[in-house]
Amino acid sequence: MSDTAPRNPRGAPQMLADALLRSAAGATALLRVTTASTDTSMSEVGLVATTFAEVPVSPVLMRKLRPSWQEGGQSQWELLVSATSVEYQVNALDLASAQALFAMTLAVTVAGQDYLIESIASNEAFGQVYLYRLLLREARQQAV
Amino acid sequence: MQNAKDSFYMALRTRLTAINPERTILLRGAVRPGILVEEAEAPLSQLPNDVFVLRWMGLATDMDLASTMAVEQCEIVYQTCGTQSFGGLDRGRTLSEMDEELIAMLQPFFTPKLNYSATPPAAMLTQVFWDEPAFGPMTVNRDLLGRSASVMVYSYQEQGE
């Protein structure tokens, strides 16, 4: 049987991923992104406090990866992020790609806890990304 | 010591702009010369390619002088996969170009010490100077060639530092 639905079938994997994420957890993650600094030379040596913006992406699902039990090692997490929300924020921020958005992300906040991005992967169907998978590790406490 | 580190970085950054203005990086929403201080940026899970990364390592002081002399070891790390137009087959040549750029950036082996916490940066009384770089062996990680060079950076501690 063919799909006679009027909507674009290429969007189906995205809708399915969103529905699954929403039903499984439906949490929101905040990407802490840096804004372009006007005085680059001062900010390049860590003198000027960079201004940050928090970009929400939702729905997301957080899952803990199997711990490796290394001495002093930190837990690693995988954050499954809806590609629809990433695409929305990429357009809102007028960025070239999702990679550009993740490249300017300093930290990811989920439920008040900060995480650092270790690596980024994506899942595609019909040539369209429907899910981003961010490998995260917990950020250490910073001085106030 | 921080003033010496800042002055060293700013000297190299300025010289790189003159030597190869094409070497740039898009970082924190700004296009900058292709050199950065690792400790002044967000934690990097992977070092960026075709960029010089300054990493401050060792520290020693000599207090048997009229002014305390601080010696800091700066490791300059860089790596490349070559260029797309050559399918990466020019990665050896690209690394050699970076070696040459680094040698050119480090000459002359001194720069005025400035206090960058003031606006505009205030000139200090002494200079920052450094040794010739000690290049490490080339590291090969599949298609990625890399190298690090170690430079000893000297500066005198001034009043108020």
Give an overview in words.
The complex is a heterodimer of chains A (144) and B (161). By secondary structure, chain A is an alpha+beta fold. Helix content of chain A is 24%, strand content 40%. Chain A has a 6-stranded antiparallel barrel with strand order 1-2-3-6-5-4. Chain A starts with 11 loop residues before the first helix and ends in a 6-residue tail after the last strand. Chain B is an alpha+beta fold and 161 residues long. Chain B has a single domain (2-156), classed as STM4215-like (2-Layer Sandwich). In chain B, helix 1 packs across helix 2 (91-105). The model of chain B has no long low-confidence stretch (mean pLDDT 93). Chains A and B meet through helix 2 and strand 5 of A and helix 1 of B.
**Main pleated sheet of chain B:** 8 strands, mixed
The parts of chain A where pLDDT drops under 50 for at least 5 residues are none
| Molecular shape of chain A | globular
What top-tier CATH class of chain B fits best? Answer: Alpha Beta
| CATH architectural grouping of chain B | 2-Layer Sandwich
What is the helix tally of chain A? 4
The count of strands of chain B amounts to: 10
Total count of domains of chain A: 1
Q: State the low-pLDDT regions of chain B, or none.
A: none
- Number of structural units classed as domains of chain B: 1
- Strand share of the residues of chain A? 35-45%
